[in-house]
Amino acid sequence: MRVMAMTMIVAFHSMCFYNGRWAKVDAIMIPFWYKTSSFLDVIDLNMFVFISGYLYGYLYIFRNKYRHPFEVVRTKARRLLIPYFFWGIPMVLVWPWNTWFKLWCGIGHLWFLMMLFGVFTLTVFLQMANAQRIRFTRRIGILLIVAASIAWLLFPKYVYGGEFLCINKILYYFPAFIIGYLCAKQRIGWLMPNWSYILLPFVLLLLYVFVWHNIPLPWTLIMLVRTLCGYTICIFLLIILSKVTMSDRSRRVFTEVERLSMGLYIFNQIVMDIVFSIPVLNQWFEIHWKVGPFLLFIIGFFPPMLLSYVFNKYKFLKWTIGG
Question: Closest by alpha carbon to 7, among 43, 54, 49?
Fold first, then answer.
């Protein structure tokens, strides 16, 4: 699932030049790529956070890990915040669209690292606040999901500066983490019946309708439906993949790509920034918008993967990408 999520993230970044969201350059708006990227955007990062919550819950409950809160925070700071500042500070110095203030609000694509650290820290704090930490129950989890969702809706309206330390993003993605945690706790992939995954096409269809068509509903409601679809897709994929048996060769390939996923994420957008800082390439991709995202996917996937492999190979470089 992490490999799937990482592939979707790279694909989304490959379309950013064509969906009008890339403020760094004069991006163009191609409706097809805008809608396609919006479809991916609902699933990819939510899936990545969902997986993080699932693995955290599984290791915490069934492998007796993450028992010392401060050790968890320290470990996640080493894996997430050190790479964030190591690459974030040069991004401020090199790229004219970045500022020092943005460094504390989630700079560029690295905001995901700051947000994920905040999600882990919030989870640890809530577990410390719970008298019986192992009884981080389903009822409490559901209450936290609802509370975080309401806070995400209301926080920007009544509190200024929600972008600082990625607070708004932490509130938005925290439910995905808790849902993953609860799925691990309930062992949902093994408990739910085989027929349950046939609902997946209907959820995908609902998401398609709410992304591809202009629904005359409030934007908040549209976002809520999209996000719920994203959560449901994550759960169904977990159920399906829990019943899949891979060959040893396939498992090794997926394991290797998963091991390189952090470096792939960090280098992907940096490579994109370099590409679009060259005027000739910028113009070429603007003219060839039909094939541009496919070429950008190749550029944004394989060279960053190779860089991640090299950095993971050497101990003195590995720590810069969370190794």
Answer: 43
